Automatic annotation (TrEMBL):
<keyword id="KW-0285">Flavoprotein</keyword>
<dbReference type="InterPro" id="IPR050097">
    <property type="entry name" value="Ferredoxin-NADP_redctase_2"/>
</dbReference>
<dbReference type="InterPro" id="IPR036188">
    <property type="entry name" value="FAD/NAD-bd_sf"/>
</dbReference>
<dbReference type="Pfam" id="PF13738">
    <property type="entry name" value="Pyr_redox_3"/>
</dbReference>
<keyword id="KW-0560">Oxidoreductase</keyword>
<protein>
    <submittedName>
        <fullName>YpdA family putative bacillithiol disulfide reductase</fullName>
    </submittedName>
</protein>
<dbReference type="InterPro" id="IPR023856">
    <property type="entry name" value="Bdr"/>
</dbReference>
Amino acid sequence: MEDSYEMYDVVIIGGGPCGLATGLALQERGIKYVIIEKEAIVNSIVNCPLDMRFYSTSDRLEIGNIPFLSQEARPSRAELLKYYRLVTERQDINIKCYQKVEHISQNNDSFIVHAMDRNGSNINYEAKMIVISTGNFDHPKRMGIKGEDTSKVMHYYKEGHPYYGQHVTVIGGKNSAIEAAIDLYRNGAKVSLVHRKETVYKGIKPSLLLDIRNFIEKDRINFYPNSSVEEITDTTVSINTPEGSVTIPNDYVFSLIGYQPDTKMLQIIGIQIDSSTLIPAFNPDTYETNIKNVFLAGVVTGGIMNKVYIEDGRFHGLKIAEAIKQRLI
């Protein structure tokens, strides 16, 4: 099959909220663009727990000045997915889903983005400029231990029902890990929570604090502070604790220790990356990288200790679109 070929002013890689917002900003300025997304739109939200309610209020998750009204101040996963679907449809955002970018090459003054769809067909896009808005949710942090790659180890949590009566170990101490541990317990799982720090009571959502404290203090969830998992087998997990190594029964593991950006694509096209923080080089006024006509939007700008969320990243596209408009005049 011959490769298809399409040409644009801008190709946006990544169809999350920040990629969609960038597309809207370009669209408002009459700039021809396309968004390429390797899975579904806002796929990071798709992978959130089914019953999750976001900590941000609905107005802080809006894009393109399009109002988002939820039943409660903090929207549910289902409400947020519906909002981004409606925005995409009603604003006729030009997005191609289930196309994975394989590599990027240069052709004189333009870029060729080489993508592959779910059927294995190659689709090439030529553009004068590129915006990379890939996020980091697809790249979980690794522990580097034996057994980490087995099928019983998961990095995303959906719901607790399938784990009723099972021994489940949750690794991590931030909101996602605490929410998973609470939900698993409520669905009848036998839960152990392992965290490398002394406590999980600091820095989590206030709505989680009362439950997790109650469950830990009443031994409903077995908590291992100042500890780390050192090995995972088919039936057990070994934990390095201050009192020594402990081995507990285990059926499933949720390693929820965070995510980090995949910098391979950035480095291949020459974007400079700070080796300690993984923060790429970019101009904070335009979000253009050290490579001319290549821009970054959203979480990808935050590095390994990311502090960029939808609330902030949704505005990156406005600066990018203004810079691109001036360049195309």
